[in-house]
């Protein structure tokens, strides 16, 4: 395997109908680590600068600042020197452009991939396994790729020998399809990376493993007992939503649809789109129209990363006339509202929404879901901040139980959480 030959207990194979995949050659127990994968290339999100080391992605206080650009932070001189080959792509440009320096995260990641001086043929065949040519890309994505290429030329090209325009567009499309979002313990976006070994793992809405992040490494752990011959399967998407929504997202982002057992049976769809109980049954047309409204609103919220609380509440009122509070579209809007409350430092409002979300999350997500553990974490920390210690400890214990399986008992986040609980 690329970057990890000889991984014990895991092998490549041709997965029927899916192409290349991974399967286990021995039994793995729930929570057991299958393998670790070092990032081929990665980039820390600009908004997280100062909280994480740019080189090793360790979360740490009192990081040392780059003396030239004053924007990059490191654990120590060793980390700073190790990262210079990548940081030099940005350092002088940050200084020159000042506040006008604004390449996309994708442009920054592609610059780093190119800086490794890997030939284009090797880059596509060994690092980026899934190839989707530009004719497969819709107009919106094509425009985004064009903007990313322009940003690469403007902000990141000084130390790079760039391929021609068409090859760059193809490379951006490939990285978008193969990249992984690095997230922290509360599922906040930390950065983006390419993990060649992890990119071999196929999707299922009934995953057998979960990917978590430890510094610059991805760790793959079993979320159920696995026997020899079982395929290693992760979910590429948020599993909260009904079958049609999941497959629309898979087609948009990864160019395929899922035919797993859950997608064929749609067994959870009815409870996911639960409607409000009324004396007169709600007409199917009313439900279908509200589903369309909900999907349109979610798309608009994805395009606008700063929804206002009033917008969330208005959507909840509109949908609440038809949908039950446990309906996934209601949950989506409540989650947005909770995020706005957290941003506004309205702890009471965040708790109010979080408590409505938590029980349905536990029912609708698979066991050992990071979406559930992150909700327990958020609520637990909010309770603690408001000196509601009994509730806080209870929520944090439930988060810990999931994280010990998903992250492993020795992960820094797990150790920090145990320490956090004892201190309170």
Tell me what you see in this structure.
Residues 8-237 form the SET domain. Its EC number is 2.1.1.354. This protein folds into five domains: 10-38 and 195-234, Beta-clip-like; 41-181, no CATH class; 239-266, no CATH class; 273-364, Serine Threonine Protein Phosphatase 5, Tetratricopeptide repeat; 366-424, Tetratricopeptide repeat domain (Serine Threonine Protein Phosphatase 5, Tetratricopeptide repeat, Alpha Horseshoe), CATH 1.25.40. Mean pLDDT is 91; it is low at 1-5, 119-125 and 129-134. The radius of gyration is 22 Å and the shape is globular. 37% of the residues are buried. It has a three-stranded antiparallel sheet. Strands 4-8-7 form a three-stranded antiparallel sheet. Strands 1-2 form a two-stranded antiparallel sheet. The protein has 424 residues and is an alpha+beta fold. Helix 11 (284-303) packs parallel to helix 13, helix 13 (328-343) packs antiparallel against helix 14 and helix 15 packs antiparallel against helix 16. Strand 10 (209-214) and strand 11 (217-222) form a beta hairpin. The chain contains 17 helices and twelve strands.
Topology of helices and strands:
Blueprint: E1 10-15, E2 19-24, E3 33-38, E4 41-44, E5 64-65, E6 73-74, H1 77-87, H2 91-97, H3 105-115, H4 120-127, H5 139-155, H6 165-178, E7 179-183, E8 189-194, H7 196-199, E9 202-203, E10 209-214, E11 217-222, E12 233-234, H8 243-254, H9 261-265, H10 269-272, H11 284-303, H12 309-320, H13 328-343, H14 347-364, H15 370-385, H16 389-406, H17 412-423
Parallel strand pairs: 9-12
Antiparallel strand pairs: 1-2, 3-11, 4-8, 5-6, 7-8, 10-11
Helix pairs in contact: 3-5, 5-6, 11-13, 12-13, 13-14, 14-15, 15-16, 16-17
């Amino acid at each position: 395997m690329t970057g990890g030959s000889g991984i014990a207990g895991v092998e490549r194979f041709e997965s029927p109908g899916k192409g290349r995949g991974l399967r286990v050659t021995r039994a793995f127990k729930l929570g057991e680590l299958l393998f670790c994968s070092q990032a081929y290339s990665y980039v820390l999100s600009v908004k997280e600068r100062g909280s994480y080391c740019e080189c090793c992605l360790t979360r740490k206080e009192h990081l040392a600042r780059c003396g030239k650009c004053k924007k990059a932070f490191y654990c120590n001189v060793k980390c700073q020197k190790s990262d210079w080959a990548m940081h030099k792509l940005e350092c002088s440009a940050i200084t020159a452009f000042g506040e006008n320096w604004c390449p996309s995260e994708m442009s920054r990641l592609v610059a780093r991939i190119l800086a490794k001086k890997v030939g284009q043929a090797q880059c596509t065949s060994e690092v980026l396994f899934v190839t989707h040519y530009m004719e497969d890309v819709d107009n919106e994505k094509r425009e985004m790729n064009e903007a990313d290429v322009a940003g690469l030329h403007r902000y990141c090209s000084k130390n790079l020998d760039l391929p021609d325009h068409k090859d760059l567009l193809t490379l951006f499309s490939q990285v978008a399809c193969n990249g992984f979002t690095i997230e922290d313990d509360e599922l906040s976006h930390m950065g983006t990376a390419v993990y060649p070994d992890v990119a071999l793992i196929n999707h299922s809405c009934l995953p057998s493993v979960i990917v978590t992040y430890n510094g610059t490494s991805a760790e793959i752990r079993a979320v159920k007992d696995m026997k020899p011959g079982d395929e290693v399967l992760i979910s590429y998407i948020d599993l909260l939503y009904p079958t049609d929504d999941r497959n629309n997202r898979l087609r948009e982002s990864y160019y395929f649809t899922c035919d797993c057992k859950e997608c064929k049976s749609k067994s959870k769809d009815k409870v996911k789109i639960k409607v409000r109980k009324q004396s007169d049954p709600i007409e199917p047309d009313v439900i279908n129209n509200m589903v369309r409204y909900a999907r349109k609103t979610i798309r608009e919220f994805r395009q606008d990363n700063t929804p206002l609380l009033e917008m969330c509440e208005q959507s909840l009122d509109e949908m609440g006339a038809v949908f039950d509070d446990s309906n996934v579209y209601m949950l989506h809007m409540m989650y947005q509202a909770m995020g706005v409350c957290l941003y506004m430092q309205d702890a009471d409002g965040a708790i109010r929404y979080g408590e409505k979300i938590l029980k349905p999350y536990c029912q609708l997500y698979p066991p050992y879901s990071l979406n559930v553990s992150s909700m327990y974490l958020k609520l637990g920390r909010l309770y603690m901040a408001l000196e509601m210690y009994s509730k806080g400890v209870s929520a944090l214990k439930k988060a810990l139980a999931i994280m010990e399986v998903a992250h492993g008992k020795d992960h820094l986040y797990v150790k920090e959480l145990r320490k956090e609980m004892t201190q309170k």
